[in-house]
Write a structure and sequence with these properties.
The chain is built from 20 helices and 27 strands. It is an alpha/beta fold and about 650 residues long. It has a 7-stranded mixed sheet, with helices on both faces. It has a 6-stranded mixed sheet with strand order 6-7-5-8-9-10, with helices on both faces. α7 packs antiparallel against α8. The longest helix has 20 residues.
Length: about 650
């Protein structure tokens, strides 16, 4: 199959580079069903921006996609070193996909450190585009290369494309009044242009983006666009790239609707805004910046027009304290953090349990303990979410399973908090937060009605006939107490962390009352209405069930698909609600001889399942800061089936 591809500055008679016209070339175009590309370079090389722009154009083209940004753990590691390597992996296809892919088909390595850090993931036969300008003796020695890998035969098993990206970018921008250093910064746009040509990506969106991003610096905008076009034209004219590739839109994958590309943190932010509008309550965020949750604070701060108030506190404790105060005042209150912040917030979460006020505590999990791996992903906060408070302080726990599911999980967490007057912990993680995929924008009438009724007057009659307000008198269906807005005449009541008397809310040290209140708070959480867990078991003959939670959904589902394609019978179920568990979970677990629970921790859900259901669940664990690979999981699950 062949096609003619013109440059972004399209002319019928050929591509344009500056004022020079070159004859159009006809090159072979191969049709692929999917591609995995990884951009890798120094943290100052703009790899995240490059990957994000390629992703945006891929989304607009209509492919299904999944991304994996991978940031250095250090804020600014020394340039050209292995700890400073930043990468962005994108998997896009003409069909439904679930993960960013196990191994890249194409690696773009901007320097020796990027090559060395990523070559172990690249399968033989894959294409490697190397910026040869950066392969100096000093740069190679810095990462342990005694000889150039471009010359010593170590890359003979790959399709290597040596490209002097830096030199070509500087040459393309020689007409601009830029220093060499300034011109070199555009080499990522040259690489983006080249990859856009290779995979027939749209270009108009990127050019408009650059014009908007650098609107106050039109010279820089023009230079980046020129570098982008030069990369496209290089792909079209060079003999080294004789083939381009086409991945058709995933037309059959998506139901009818309006779609956009969205990351988990952005989806979560939109979900919180939607929840506040559906509840007809102002949204209040009290937060302290922490990776990888800070983007939620950044995003919500842009939406004052939706009645959103954001407060950047001086620390984690102040952030949740302000949020709890906002909940007392009648707002949909939220605090965002990661694992270390949850530890600091634990006393105030316990206070929210005692006050029985709605509060959303959003934990974007990362590697721990302590500061741990700030930019890497993990699922190791589950037991902290369940038990990380003094006393008996039960809290509902909800976990989204994909970046787009973060929107729905935010609505669900708000429903539980508002209905049952309780703090709710939402467990996302760095993989979901930074990863992205296509999202169908829901219609407003598809969203749940979350409106609440505040207390308006007396709700209890004393023996002498006096009507009074009891702040801890409960709804018989939900066991929720009334939500009384401060300043409402006649509804004055006491709050605080000391144990309350049932009904009146007065301070009580009575042992029997404390026993009753502890059991009542637990019964309220146990009685939360959550959907039954659904089991995917097409044959109905599987002996093995794979049970997951959170962001393991994509890799687990991809692994299960591989096994079924190979003729294996295997069932799959995934938990959104971790406290309380779905009521049918015990019955589901009892139907299978083997239960395997893959987790990015050392077996926290498995511990809970074994304790509650006395099921001999088998753990499969990984704590390397990266999501599971589908092939790796498929191998482990096959061993479980055969074992």
């Amino acid at each position: 199959m062949t096609s003619q591809v013109s440059s972004p500055a399209e002319h019928a008679d050929g591509a344009v580079v500056g004022e020079q016209r070159k004859p159009a070339r006809v090159k072979e175009t191969r049709r692929l069903d999917r591609v995995i590309i990884r951009f890798a370079g120094d943290s100052g090389d703009g790899m995240q921006l490059t990957g994000d722009r390629f992703t945006s154009e891929t989304a607009s083209f209509g492919n299904d996609l999944s991304t994996l940004p991978n940031f250095p753990a250090e804020i600014r590691a020394p340039a050209g070193t292995l700890p400073g390597v930043s990468s962005f992996q994108l998997h896009f296809a003409d069909h439904d996909i679930l993960t960013p892919g196990d191994a890249p088909n194409v690696l773009v390595a901007m320097n020796p450190a990027a090559l060395k850090a990523n070559i172990g993931d690249v399968p033989r036969g894959a294409e490697i585009i190397v910026n040869t300008d950066e392969f100096t003796k000093r740069a190679m020695a810095k990462v342990g290369y005694a000889a150039s890998p471009l010359e010593d035969g170590s890359l003979d098993g790959y399709a290597v494309h040596p490209v002097p990206l830096t030199t070509m970018t500087v040459e393309a921008l020689k007409e601009f009044e830029l220093s060499r250093k300034e011109a070199e910064r555009s080499k990522n746009m040259f690489a983006l242009g080249l990859l856009s040509w290779m995979y027939h990506r749209p270009t108009e969106g990127t050019e408009k983006f650059l014009q908007t991003k650098f609107a106050k610096k039109p010279e820089i905008a023009a230079a980046n666009i020129a570098a982008f076009r030069a990369g496209w034209n290089f792909g079209e004219t060079t003999e080294d790239f004789a083939v381009s590739y086409e991945v058709a839109p995933a037309a059959k994958t998506f139901p009818t609707g309006t779609y956009r590309n969205i990351s988990g943190n952005l989806a979560l932010s939109y979900g919180l805004i939607a929840a506040s509008k559906q509840a007809d309550l102002p949204l209040y965020l009290g937060s302290y910046p922490i990776t990888p949750a800070s983007d939620i604070l950044h995003e919500l701060s842009k939406h004052k027009n939706f009645g959103v108030r954001t407060f950047q506190a001086e620390d984690e404790i102040a952030g949740i304290g302000a949020a709890l105060g906002a909940a007392f005042g009648g707002s949909l209150a939220v605090t965002t953090t990661s694992g270390p912040g949850v530890a600091l917030k634990s006393e105030t979460i316990g206070l929210a349990v005692s006050l029985e006020l709605p509060l959303l505590v959003i934990d974007i999990q990362r590697g721990g303990p302590s500061t741990g791996l700030p930019t890497k992903t993990e699922q190791a906060d589950l037991l902290q979410a369940m038990y990380g408070r003094n006393g008996e302080a039960p809290v509902p726990v909800v976990a989204p399973c994909t970046p787009t599911d973060c929107f729905d999980a935010a609505l669900e967490a708000a429903r539980i908090a508002l209905t049952y007057r309780t703090p709710v912990l939402l467990l996302s993680d760095g993989y979901l937060a930074n990863g992205s995929e296509p999202w169908r924008i829901p219609e407003v009438d598809e969203l749940p009605d979350l409106r609440v009724q505040f207390a308006q007057g007396p709700n209890h009659t004393l023996d002498d006939g006096t009507e009074v307000f009891w702040p801890y008198k409960r709804d018989p269906g939900t066991l929720a107490r009334p939500w009384a807005i401060p300043g409402t005449p006649g509804l004055e009541h006491r709050i605080g962390g000391i144990e309350k008397q049932d009904g009146t809310g007065n301070i009580s040290y009575d042992p029997a009352n404390h026993d009753f209140m502890v059991r009542t708070r637990q019964a309220k959480i146990d009685g939360i209405d959550v959907p039954d867990i659904e089991v995917d078991d097409p044959s109905g003959e599987a002996d093995t069930l794979v049970l997951g939670w959170g962001s393991t959904y994509g890799p687990i589902t991809a692994a299960v698909r591989r096994l079924r394609a190979a003729g294996e019978n295997i069932a799959q179920a995934h938990l959104r609600h971790l406290n309380p568990f779905p009521r049918n979970l015990g019955a589901v677990l009892g139907r299978y001889e083997k239960v395997v629970i893959p987790e990015m921790n050392l077996g926290q859900l498995a511990t809970l399942v074994r304790a509650k259901y006395l099921v001999d669940a088998h753990s499969y664990n990984q704590v390397n800061g990266m999501p599971f690979k589908a092939e790796q999981l498929a191998t482990a699950l096959k061993e479980a089936i055969d074992g």
